[in-house]
Predict the 3D structure of the following.
Amino acid sequence: MLFRDCFFYVPKLLFLLYYYTKYHVRIFFCGSVIFGNEWSIKMEKMKIKIEGMSCNHCVAAVSKALTDLGGLEKIKVDLKSNTASFNYDPQKTLPEKIKAAVAEAGYTALI
């Protein structure tokens, strides 16, 4: 099988695997595949108050700091309410690390 054939056969294989076994399949960018419900990642929701934001540049800086941290999804930073909400993987990212990343960007996170 050639490398270009993988683009055809791998998605088809994953579809058939799900169709016949009803397992949930998650594909990550690193290329690993996880099968089964018991291995799925449990994301937790968090909403934090951020002090010191005054413009859209501040929102972009906080968003970048949270994105660069890793382990966070669905990041939304709101200037009007001075909050940031996101889902995070508690096995990869601790609240202390989130607070430190926001502080590195120059803002104060109240968790």
In short: The CA atoms of residues 10 and 77 lie 37 Å apart. The mean pLDDT is 77.
